[in-house]
Amino acid sequence: MKIKNLIFSAVMGSLFGLLPVSSFAQNSFEMTEPETSDGAPQVIGGVPASKADWPATFSFRSGGGRCTSTVVGEASILTAAHCIEDGAVGSIRSQGVTIRVRCTHHPRYATDYQYDVAMCLADQPIPLANGALFETLNSSSGIPRVNDRVILLGFGCRQEGGGGPSGKLYTGASNVRSLSGVYIVTSGGAAVCFGDSGGGAYASLSDVQRRLIGVNSRGDISTTSYLTSVSSHGVVGFFLDWADENSTTICGLHNGAAGCQP
What is the pLDDT of residues 140-156, one digit of tens each? Predict the structure, then answer.
């Protein structure tokens, strides 16, 4: 059986035959920590992810559906722009603490869907379980390369075409087939599905430290996934401007950022 898992969220809109990971954009939301694995069986090659391995990955729900997000600094959360309204306000719950969060789209997303990233600012530092580290963004334009293996992560459905349950954190590996504009295109192995929108994709190379290389954006809900690269020039510029405007830091982009994956 071919391995296909992970994918995106809600409304079935299409663009060049591809489904956005989610298309619901709501003004209120709540981000929550992953639930403890219940030992669920693998589905279409999916592998239940350990909460302990991915403590900075959060599920969030709005009135329109589910997405995935990643804490990349003590007050900085990364997700997909199509998951939430620009300027939306919600909350993140971590370690028994509820914190107010406000999200901002990449300014080019409205006219170019490849810039499918949003940064969300927490109004106080976000505690992670057992003092775990925040995920660090890749800042190298040379990573990933075509044919590199990457790790996909998300809370979405686990069957080709969008079927099956969602809400549990799953992970799977795929291969980079091309680098197209701001997108990293992967196919083979795992694929993103409804609910995985906004989740992080990671470098899977023996010579590269753990780095978040892309954000789950869209795919064909079968074999191919499109990830917005976090190291593209236009995306990095947005991250730096957002951090400067909000007097905060992002792991991988600021030397002074604390609590980051090394």
Answer: 989 999 999 999 988 87
